[in-house]
Structures are given as C-alpha cells and as structure tokens.
Amino acid sequence: MGADPSGVCRRRGRSIVNEPIDQPNRERFVSELDKNFSVVAAAGSGKTRAITDRIVQIAKGDHARDWLPQLVVVAFTNRAADEMQQRARAEVLQARVTVEVLAAFNRAFFGTIHAFCVRLLESYGHYLGLPPTFDVITDDDEVWNEFVQQQTTIGRSLSDENRRELLRHVQARALMELGRRADLKPGDPPAGECPDTDFSAVHRYSAQGATLQTVPPYKKELKRAEQRWRDTQDFVRWPICFSKAKDFVRIKREAFAPIRRWIDQAALCVAAEVERDYREFRIERGLLTYDDQIALALELTKHPKIGREIREKSFRVILDEAQDTDPRQFSLLLELTRPPNATGDWLETKTDHPRPGDFCMVGDFQQSIYRDRADLSKYRRIHETLVETGAAAALQFSVTFRLDTAQLDFVNKTFREILNDRDQQVAFVELNPRPQVLPGQVVRLNLQPAKFRPDPRGKVSDARKAAEEARQLGKWLQETGLTKLRAETWRDVAILCPRKEWLQTLRRGLRAAGLNVQIQSEKELKGDSPAYAWLTALLIVLSQPRCGYEIAGLLRELFGISDHDLAVFSQGYGDRFQIETLTSGGDIVSKKLSLLAQIRLSILPLPLFDAVNEIVRRTQLRERLNGLPRADFENLDGELDALLALAGSSEAEGMTLTEFAEHLRTHFADAREIRPSRPDAIQLITSQKAKGSEWQAVIVPFLTRDVRSASPRYPRLLKIRGTGETIVLLDLSDATDEIQELLERENRQEMERLLYVALTRAQHTLVLAFDNELFAKTSGEIHSHSQSKWLKADKNDVNAAAFARIGVEPASCANTTEHHRARARIDKIDIQLPGAKIDKSVAIKNASVFVRKLNPSGLPSEESATLEEIRYEPSPTPRSTSPALRYGLWWHDFIQRLKWVRAGLAFNSKNESELFKLWEKTFQVNLTSSPDPARSQREWKLLLAHLSKPENFRRHFEGDKSIIHAEMPLFWKLDDNRCIEGVIDLAFFQRSNGKCLILDWKTDRVPSDNTETLHARYRPQLAAYWKAVTHMTGASADAG
C-alpha cells in the first residue's frame, strides 16, 4: 500500500497530521455506536480498517460484554471474514481490554451470511422440520435428476383442465426447469380457461423483400400448429419466428398476447410449486443449497414465535460488500435487527426500523459486478430508504489509500463519463488522494501488428491473435523489469482479464518468455486437482467393483490405456470392466483389472486410513502425480498428503471406505482452497476475482478483443430490476427487442463497473495494453463488446484524448523505492531461533500428549459402567433423519422448556396443579411441531400420571430446598489425559441431605419385557454423568 490505512481514524488524545478530507465521516462511523450507517466506500478507501475500528470502539465501551457476543460481521468470502477477524482481534488485544471483554469478543460472529444462516438453522431449524445435520451442495445435477425421476405430478395448483392445456403448450421438463432455481412467491393460478385467439392478422400480412424468406414458411407452420391446437388434444409445438421485420413481429406478438399471458401466469404458478417441492425433496435428504440456507433462515424470522425470539437476541450487524448482497440476504439481515414485535417486510411497511446502532452496511455501487445474484436496484432502494426514513445516516469514504497520483487522476478523468448516473448506471464517486501520496504512473503499451497466415477460410482466429499478444507482452515484461514497473517481486505484478479462458493463453506466452506465472482461477474446483480427482475415482471404483463405466474411465485417465485397447478388450460388452473377481489374460487391460481386484481384496479387512495408504502405494499414485508437469500442477504431493490426513480424520469419525469415497465425490465440485502466491510468479487473475485485492503493478491486456458472453439457456425467468416483474422466456423468440436491449444495457453497465474494479487495483503502475492492430476489424473499427469500447477510448469517443495522452515508457521512481524499503524495515521480524537442537523423539512424544474429550453419549454400550475402563467411540453422524430421530429431538426440545420452579411455585403436592397447568400450555404450544402428535399425547399423559403418583422420581426432591437444572452442561477432568464433556437432561439437587438425581430422557421403543436392553445401551452414559457429578459436587447421585 502507498500508505497504511491504519492511521486514518484519529485515536483519542492524539491528532493526525495531514488527515484525509473525509476524516469526519470515518470518525462518525467509528465512534457513534448508537447510530446506523450506510457507507459508500470507494476503491481502496480503507473500509476494512473502518469496520475494524468500530469493533474496537465497541470493545472499549461500557457495553462491550453485552454487545460483542451479539456482533455479526458479514463478509462476502470466508477469506475476507478471517482477515477482518484477525485484524480486529489484534487491535482489541492492543487496546488491553479485560479478559471478560476478550472472551465476549471471541463469541462474536465473523463469516459469510451463509455460515450465519447455518447457525440459525442449527438452533431453530427443527421448527421448520429440518434435520439436525445437513450437507451443503453446490452442484445439484444428480439430486435434480433424482427429483425429476420421482416427480409423478406437476401443476397441482391448477385445475385438471388447465393443467392439461398448459402441458399442451409447454413440456413438463421445461416447466420443471423454470422452477429449479426460481425465486418465486406462490402466485394465483389463471382465473379461467385458456383464451382463444385470432391469427388472421398474421395470415393477412403481405411479405416483401427479405421477409419473403422467413414470413411465408412461418405462416405455413403456424396454420398447421393452429389446426393441431383446435382439432386435437395433442402437444402443440408453436413455430419460432425468425423474421426481424418489426411490423410483422408486432402483429405476431399481438395475436399471441392473450394465450401467452395465460401460459405465463400458469407457468409461473407451476414453477413456484416445483421450487417448493424441490426444496422439500432436498431437505428430506439432508441437503441444502446456499439459497436454501438464506430462504429457510428468512422463514425463521417470519415465524410468529421464533422470529420474535431471534430478534430479542439484539444482533448487531455490520455488512461488508453490501453491493454483492442479494435481496433475500438484505431482507434477512434487516429482519434480524428490527424490534422483537416487528411485523411485515420493512421495505414495504417502513415501520419498526432496525434498532439504532444494530445495522451498518458498507459497500460501493461502482463495484457491483455480480448482477446474476445481486440486485443493484435493491441495494440502492435499501440505501435510500434507510436514509429517507432516518433509520440510518449516509456516509461517503472517497479518499483512496491504494492509488498513487497518476492512476487516481486517470480514473477520475475517464470514469466520470463511464459511470455517468444515466439509464440506471451508477454515479461516479470522485476519488481523493491520501496524505503523502506517491507519484505513480499509467503506461500505454502499443502492441505491434503481426503477419498471420489465414486459415483455409481466409480468417485469423482470436486465439492466434491472443497468442501473439501474450508473446509480445512477455517480451515487454522481460525487457522492462521490476524496477521500471515499481514492483518489489513478480508476485506484486498482476495481469487482469474479464474472461478466465484467456488466462491460459497468457500463461503459455509468458512462460515462453522465461517468466514464471500463477493462475488464480475464480472458480477452481477441488476436482480440478489430479490428486483429488484420481484418488476419488480409485475409491469409487474399489467400493463399486461392477461399475463398468467408472472403471473404464479410470483405466483411461489414470493408467493411460488407449481407447483402442479398451474397445478391443470389451468387444462391446461393458460388463467386462469389473474388479469383483480376477481377470485372466496377458493384455494391459486385464493386468490392470486384476491389479485393482487384488487391491480390493487386500483392503477389505483394513481400517480406512490404512486402506487408502495401501491403494496409493499399490497404484503408484504418488509417482504418477509427480510425473505430471510441475509448471501446470503445483504441490500435488502436499494435496495428496492432505487427502490422506482427511482419510485419517474420517476414520476417527467412523466412516467406511464407501462413505469416504462418496464424501469425496459429493464435494468434487466444491471450491478449491486459495493457494498462496509464489514470490517469483506473476499473478494471472480474472477482473472479477481481483475485487478486494491490490498489486504494485497491474496490466490490463486484450482491450480490443471481442468479449463474448455465454448464450442464455432456455427456458428461463427474467426479473425486471426496476419493477420486480418476472417474465417467462420459453425460447429465444420470446426475447423481444425491448428485452434484448435491456439485457444488453445491463451487461454493458456491469462490464463498465468491472473495468472500474480492474483499473483501481494498481498501487504504483497501471499498464494498458492497446491491441487495436491485432483485434480491430479490417475497417479499423473496434468491437462493440470490447473493453476499449466500454472505456469510451475509441477514436471520437469522449475518453479518446485521455487515453491518447498516456505515456508509453515506464520509469523507475526513487520515492517509491524508498517507500518499499521503509515498509520492509517496519514489517521485518527479527527473531533469533534457539541455538540448541530439537530432540525429535521428545517432540514426537510430547505431540501426542493432549487432553482427549469424552462424550458420554458416545460411550459404547457393551462396556461396563466402571469409568476407568471406558473406551470412547464417537457417535456416528446421522446420515438421515428418521422419524424416530426427529421425534427424539422434538421431545428433548419440548421437555427442556418445562419450568420445574416458576413464579415462586416449588414442585410439591400443594402446587402440583398450578405447575401442571403451566406445563400443559407449554405442551400445547409445542405439540404443533411434533413429528408424531399422537405419540406425544400418549407419552405426555404417561409422564403427568407418573408425577401425580406418590412414588414419582421427584419424591425426595420436593420443597424449596431443592435445586433443579434442565440441560445442565458439565466439563470434568477425568485424569491428566482425559476429560468428560456433556449435557445432563435434568438434574435435581437437595441442599438438606446432599443427594442428587440425574435423569436422561430416552425415546427408544423397546418391548416392555426387554427393558434390560435399554439399560445396557445407556448405562455407560449415566455412569459417566454419575461419576462426574459426584466428584464435582460431593453429592451422592441416583441416575435414572
């Protein structure tokens, strides 16, 4: 950084020389803890520092112990949240707060909104019928296909006749695809039957000129489809109109309008139904998407009882990167901070505003680059509504601590005309320099034309032009060097592209020039690593020995067997690829199949970790990975070791080989952990992923290259941002000129904001690679979908002069070099390592000395109740939510709500009836959420009947001298190596005689004459409770 933003906020009792001009706004945000703020923070303006300072101010205040545990800091990524938490903790420690305040800080939440939703669902999800545990899925193709196959009926919300009519116009699979990722509220079905329509105006249209090629064939197909519609009950495939004649398209749309409005309303109704059914299908299987987490958490806030309970916790929300927050996420965070009695949606009612000091958001309209998931118009509306209603104050941070003078001036000159606050585009926020700013430089790299040999079609592909640009750029970087780029290492140099596919071309070109590079992909998946992919494939095959398709793929990819050899071996019979038995034969395929079969037999008796190690050894997996080009695949050894460590921890959790293989496959498409950048490697990264990062030198190539977007998939739903209207697009012909123009404008404006992000990442040097000579059209005109066009840098555009004046020669800077040296002296860590050698044998021995936690519920039933002989076995994670499990969870949740002493009423024969009345109210409230209400009624009556008898379990603990604890936690040191941690369902203590009663609720169903099975199963658990309580309290305990 050019200057450390840690100094932007004035500390008490001190002043800062040369304060930023927006310092008053920063001080308000940090110090006014009883006010809500919506902060617009420009690029590099130190918003993370400001958020951290506000947290530290809370920690130093009188309410720290109350406010910090309720603090919810929401960031866009886990990495950003971790960084913010670490910085905040360091500042809190430097503030020398008390131990109690530090403990309160450790209870604050830092993470993504999805992680926070998981917390809410784990605590309150049972009210929505959610399982106690669930897996998050990012790739739902398999789940979706399973859902489609088992879905026998759609359109239940329509009448039988309307459902039949809709399915004549739209295929069932298309309707289901509309609902797959929809975000729809249940809508009203069409009021009547499908209306008739008149196509006579279409048939009367007289085609002329170019329309003679498109209109007559369309009219012929339309007449055939109309006859099919009117005379039969068959599916009608309406023809697609390829004519672009505006008068004909208008007539055609007017003719179809009545029937199309009916189809759209019915389709939206069915799509909302499919959306609900699919979510319930996932929930039943313990699977949730990220969108599910948000939707279900928001549903909790709407619950009349739980919503109030959640809001009573008084969460204090600080939202970072607000511009990337989608509408539902905004709604959830706003609901969390409203008063407990709040009702309705705040944006609609504008009443019961977020509590003062409990909602702050920091964002930047200019950096909104994810329109597919975020809604810029919703962010604008929330910002304006917060300010207009007085629920929050608006602040602006305009001083950038990143850009040097040259880049700052350049951005200010050019982006005034790009982010112009017209046609729904955002307004540009003028950047201001930091104190003691460095000079900086903006460099224009003019790439030279190349003599390409055209292909047989007489054309030169963009790929060949891009390769030439990468070659010239690599040569220029080698000749220029780090000094002129004003960068300390090659890691401090980044090349940004709007498309991930372009990075590979740059990598090849720069490597050819002798430069090391590293791609930081924005969507790098775990399965992209050969270590993860090959080990997963091996485990899947070895756990499914007759899965011929997978086996053939493994032989091809891992063992390098050719398709020809595989085809000769199988002779068309896929079931020959099996490893359940040995395969005879001397060919390469038979040998490898026999090897896999032998490995499978040898690992059957082995535990998971040993089995995976044996698989790696016998298949020479590590050697095969090391044979891959290290320049393309980094640290495969380390990745394989990490997978082996995962196998070890999974074995400790009780996983089998099959379950571990399925676990790896389930997370195959998960995002891969970000790899640290290498000091000697130039960073290649997409402009999208570059947001939030900075480098000393940034290069933006391919300015004139055509930036193509993927074609949209149909059918699709299109939500109009301004009105909130949802439009059904069944195929490309449904996209009218107005819709196409709207989509084109939204895409252009997003790319303009993306360029703002890209051009504000450079601290000292910004290089713009002009490649007009390579990518411009033969007429000299540049592509309309290019970065140069969006920057308005083409000749005769408003920014043409500003781009033409950019210097072409980079130069070193003594001030910048001295700044680097000064910062290195500050950052230097001078720690002398001890001179004595470390005894590895002692270190290994000490490494295994730690306290092991024993969970009483995980103790094996076959062990005796003598605690010293107990061997701990972790309880397996539930793989499904059976009715019995759901009922047990419900019973425990209900029973802990009973108040054994309330309003001065001790449990005794005199007050029994009053307490029973209070309990009955509690039971009736909770009965509605029971998975088995009839059983709940029966067992509740049995419990009341038992407590009414003289010989009930409470008989020795009546009166005012008894102490009762429901859900009593315990943590007890058993010996130097073990401790017991658990929660006792119900504990009674008698002051007078030192006795106590430990009660654990069990909902297992066993025959009345076989209760010993139940005793044997849970005796070790109760013995652990008994041992811990008697040693900690000195009381003599009874357990039941």
Write the SSE topology:
Blueprint: H1 23-31, E1 37-41, H2 47-60, H3 64-67, E2 71-74, H4 78-94, H5 99-106, E3 109-111, H6 113-124, E4 135-136, H7 141-150, H8 160-169, H9 172-180, H10 200-204, H11 215-231, H12 246-284, E5 287-288, H13 290-302, H14 306-311, E6 316-319, H15 327-336, H16 346-349, E7 359-363, H17 376-388, E8 393-397, E9 399-400, H18 405-418, E10 432-433, E11 441-446, H19 462-485, E12 493-497, H20 502-512, E13 516-520, H21 530-543, H22 548-557, H23 563-570, H24 588-603, H25 608-618, H26 621-626, H27 636-652, H28 657-666, E14 681-686, H29 687-690, E15 695-700, E16 716-719, E17 726-729, H30 737-759, E18 762-770, H31 772-775, H32 787-790, H33 800-804, H34 814-827, H35 840-847, E19 852-854, H36 883-895, H37 912-927, H38 933-948, E20 962-973, E21 978-990, E22 995-999, H39 1011-1033, E23 1036-1039
Parallel strand pairs: 1-7, 1-8, 2-3, 2-6, 4-5, 6-7, 9-10, 11-18, 12-14, 12-15, 13-14, 15-18, 19-21, 22-23
Antiparallel strand pairs: 16-17, 20-21, 21-22
Helix pairs in contact: 1-2, 2-4, 6-13, 9-12, 13-15, 19-20, 21-22, 21-27, 21-28, 24-25, 25-27, 37-38
Task: Please characterize this protein's 3D structure.
The protein has 1040 residues and is α/β, with parallel strands linked by helices. It folds into five domains: 5-133 and 290-401, P-loop containing nucleotide triphosphate hydrolases (Rossmann fold, 3-Layer(aba) Sandwich), CATH 3.40.50; 142-282; 441-453 and 460-522 and 682-707 and 744-815, P-loop containing nucleotide triphosphate hydrolases (Rossmann fold, 3-Layer(aba) Sandwich), CATH 3.40.50.300; 526-666, PCRA, domain 4 (Orthogonal Bundle), CATH 1.10.486; 852-1039, Lambda Exonuclease, Chain A, CATH 3.90.320. It is 45% helix and 11% strand. The chain contains 39 helices and 23 strands. Strand 21 and strand 22 form a beta hairpin. It starts with 22 loop residues before the first helix and ends with a strand. Residues 1-16 and 862-880 have low confidence and may be disordered.
